[in-house]
Amino acid sequence: MNVRGHTLIDKSTGSDLPKLAAPAQRALASVGINKLEDLVSFTEDEIMELHGMGPNAMQQICQALAANQLAFAEIPIPPRHRSVPENAK
Fold first, then answer.
1. What are the domain boundaries of the chain?
2. pLDDT tens-place string over residues 17-50
3. 2-78 — its CATH code?
């Protein structure tokens, strides 16, 4: 979350993702997304295809990415080139 130019991190989760509905949170976690920066390895279509993602969650994510000068990948990045969180191995 970005407030007055500062990214706020949820201290309970260590995430800077916007507050999303539980299904959207689970969808992102299922592919190892815990921070906004993790989203740059995925296209918008890849995220939208995840079970649990809806238009409201996607709008919140797009706004958070823009506020932090980040963007989705324009072309799919092969999974082996994505960073895999340690807890997902």
1. 2-78
2. 999 999 999 999 999 999 999 999 999 999 999 9
3. 1.10.150
